[in-house]
Design goal:
29 residues; 1 helix; mainly alpha; 76% helix
Length: 29
């Protein structure tokens, strides 16, 4: 269960960061 939830969290972070980068591509640079 821990590994599954950890993988789920990583996927969510990846999606969120991708959306954030799509909206603000210059803020993290």
């Amino acid at each position: 269960m821990l590994k599954e939830s950890d993988n789920f969290t990583k996927q969510n972070l990846h999606v969120i960061s991708s959306r954030f980068l799509a909206r603000n591509p210059y803020k993290l640079r």
